[in-house]
Design goal:
Elements lengths: L2 H12 L7 H28 L13 H4 L11 H17 L9 H11 L8 H14 L5 H6 L1 H11 L12 H11 L7 E3 L6 H11 L5 H7 L3 E5 L2 H13 L7 E3 L18 E6 L9 H4 L11 H12 E12 H5 L3 H12 L2 E7 L13 E7 L7 E5 L21 H8 L4 E3 L2 E7 L1 H6 L19 H30 L4
Parallel strand pairs: 1-2, 1-4, 2-3, 4-5, 6-8
Antiparallel strand pairs: 5-7, 6-7, 8-10, 9-10
């Protein structure tokens, strides 16, 4: 089967199962199955290189021993397969008895199944799904494993239109651009404290992989990334993604990064990182118990604010960060936002703000977002703002016309030759000193998109204006309705 059609084939089989409701559940169903098959392929490699290797998965539950169909009529199917999956596979793997110091490549198995679900209720259809996955890709083959990235991208893009699951996917062009600008180097550790499906980490790994020249470099590469994700589906997708990228013991944790006292990180050996790449969840509200983990001046109910505050404590001295943040943070004047912005300028080196077009995350959200670039080398000497306009020929980005890396070419060109730009009387790129930002109350809503001025009418004039516009619309609708009725030969 062609790799590009695999996901659609699996979705079509699952649409006939009464237990699977919607794309998000179909994606979750595929993900734990892909995880088991990929993990089994990695175990074959580990067994080959280590004669003493022992699997954390009981032999009867290994993919090769229950999923593979020898076409001899003995493969589990129907009610027997459902009973095995629900009452043995899931129960056993989610309750693995692991030592506190168990290797990461063992603990991820338990974490992967702790909150996972088998939604399928038809064992015959489940067998069809298992067979399709088992026969589609041989993950023991390096080329096929990496070709699977094509399928993986399809799954991640499908998340954008799968209800709330879309929040976990940042367009690959955006993650690649941010990683390229921050430029991680082999030997540095890259973190994402709300890593979703691992998009930022994989963008960083692409750059690090190109720097690998020796076996020692490969070992360094395998310890380069760190992620935390609190929701089960993206966590499982991220772990699987890391295995596909030859991270054999993914340092990816199923946890909430905000539920730890931020002041402790500065005193922990592995608490800080050279590079942070993030698109923090925004629009969420955190309870008081979570806010208590932060100093009083940084406490906010807004999730995105707390993640920015967290980065202030977890970025190494000399470290670099690129973070996506909504417009509301730039102009927000509540105490925590103002304090975070002050610290970014006066205690960190906030040096660049790239303002992205409104539809970058379409169709999931139309919220306008920005990228903050900062480091902890010194305090800021000033901040460059650059407005990234829609490319020629685009009114907006969409699922069929998404943002691509080439759309950042103008930003990259400006990045290496920074200068102020004015268009139609409005600044497109401009430098602001710390004194100017301080005088403006730390309002970073600068070089934004021009808005037409709204004319404020007196109440009686406003009412007359709305009545006139309503009458015009009513007349247009009546005329169109009359045309339709005339064509159909019925009375309006």
């Amino acid at each position: 089967m062609a790799l590009g059609t695999l996901v659609k084939s699996l979705q079509n089989i699952m649409r006939n199962d009464a237990g699977v409701n919607g794309d998000a559940q179909r994606i979750e169903q595929m993900t734990w199955l892909f995880f088991l098959k990929i993990y089994d392929a990695k175990e074959e490699e580990w067994e080959f290189h280590d004669d003493d290797y022992e699997s954390v998965i009981p032999e009867r539950l290994q993919w090769r021993n229950w999923a593979h169909d020898n076409k001899d009529g003995k493969a589990l199917t129907g009610d027997g397969l459902l009973d095995f999956v629900n009452n043995d596979l899931f129960r056993t793997l989610s309750n693995l008895d692991l030592a506190p110091d168990a290797p990461l490549r063992q603990s991820i198995v338990k974490a992967a199944f702790t909150d996972a679900n088998n939604y399928m209720k038809d064992g015959i259809l489940l067998r069809q799904v298992v067979n399709t996955i088992d026969e589609a890709v041989d993950f023991t083959e390096y080329k096929e494993r990496h070709a699977f990235g094509e399928i993986y991208e399809t799954i991640l893009k499908d998340l954008q239109s799968a209800g709330n699951a879309g929040e976990f996917y940042t367009p690959r062009a955006v993650t690649d651009f941010m990683a390229q600008m921050v430029a991680p180097r082999l030997g540095e550790r890259v973190a994402d404290f709300a890593c979703g499906t691992g998009g930022f980490l994989t963008s960083a790994l692409k750059l690090l992989d190109a720097q690998v020249e020796t076996p020692d470099d490969r070992d360094t590469y395998s310890r380069s990334v760190y992620g935390v994700e609190k929701k089960q589906l993206p966590y499982l997708l991220c772990v699987t993604n890391m295995l596909l990228h030859d991270i054999e013991s993914p340092e990816i944790y199923h946890d909430n990064s905000l539920e730890h006292d931020v002041r402790d990180w500065r005193h922990k050996k592995d608490g800080q990182f050279d590079v942070v790449l993030m698109n923090p969840p925004y629009g969420g509200s955190e309870k008081a118990s979570v806010q208590s983990y932060f100093p009083a001046a940084l406490r906010s109910s807004e999730t995105a604010d707390l993640f920015l505050a967290l980065i202030l404590y977890r970025l190494k001295r000399g470290g670099r960060a690129a973070v996506i943040i909504p417009d509301g943070f730039l102009f927000g004047q509540d105490a925590a936002k103002v304090e975070i912005k002050r610290r970014l300028v006066e205690e960190m080196n906030l040096h660049t703000v790239v303002r992205m077009p409104q539809s970058v995350f379409a169709p999931y959200t139309s919220i306008t977002t920005n990228i903050l670039f900062f480091d902890s080398t010194k305090k800021s000497e000033g901040v460059w703002f650059y407005r990234m306009d829609m490319p020629e020929g685009y009114k907006h980005f969409s699922k069929t016309k998404p943002i691509s890396l080439k759309h950042f070419d103008a930003v990259k060109e400006w990045w290496v030759d920074r200068h102020e730009i004015e268009q139609d009387g409005n600044p497109k790129a401009k430098f602001y000193t710390p004194d100017e930002l301080r005088a403006g109350g730390w309002n970073l809503d600068l070089c934004g998109y021009p808005h037409e001025e709204e004319v404020i009418l007196l109440p009686d004039e406003l009412i007359r204006d709305y009545k006139a516009r309503r009458a015009t619309l009513d007349a247009q609708i009546d005329a169109r309705l009359a045309q339709i009725c005339d064509i159909l030969g019925i009375e309006a």
